[in-house]
Write a structure and sequence with these properties.
The protein is α/β, with parallel strands linked by helices and 157 residues long. Helices cover 41% and strands 27% of the residues.
């Protein structure tokens, strides 16, 4: 393995560790929480969660609908580029996230330029409540937290 590749991998792991620290703080996650990370190429994030003391962490292709994976307490989508991708993600979550669970979406810089009034209805239409936009460290876009409504709350709304 070349020195450049090793350095790049170490940089990716350091970035992932910083990202995990930010996500844990934002969601108040504990090591007993079940976490699912969506999207291919997220192995560094999975490793960083394991190093942070979490032992129930899984990666799930963003093209799957949660089948074969138990309901997570927290689902993380680390790189969403636009509103269409966000809407598709929310529709495809299926049973990957338990009712009352937290969804954390990091919108890339392009998508983050949209204002909250444009994105909030996408979350609400898909059965999420308590949607909150948080400042994100670095140039990583914006962080959105949303809680999946329980079936009783969703019917009442």
């Amino acid at each position: 393995m070349s020195n450049a590749l090793v350095l790049d991998k170490a940089r990716n792991l350091a970035t992932a560790a910083a990202c995990v620290a930010e996500l844990v703080a934002a969601t108040e996650a504990t090591p007993s929480d079940r976490i699912t990370v969506l999207g291919g190429g997220q192995i560094e994030l999975l490793i960083a969660f394991l190093r942070h003391g979490f032992d129930d962490v899984a990666c799930l292709s963003s093209t799957r609908n949660g089948s074969g994976v138990g309901e997570a307490d927290i689902v993380i989508a680390p790189a969403i580029d636009n509103e269409t991708e966000l809407a598709a993600l929310l529709c495809s979550l299926g049973r990957a996230l338990r009712p009352g669970g937290n969804l954390v979406v990091r919108l890339t810089e392009t998508a983050a330029l949209r204002n909250q009034q444009q994105l909030l209805p996408i979350f609400l239409k898909s059965g999420f409540a308590a949607v909150e936009r948080r400042a994100s460290s670095g140039n990583l876009g914006s962080l959105w937290l949303a809680r999946k409504q329980s079936k009783i709350s969703a019917r009442a709304a």
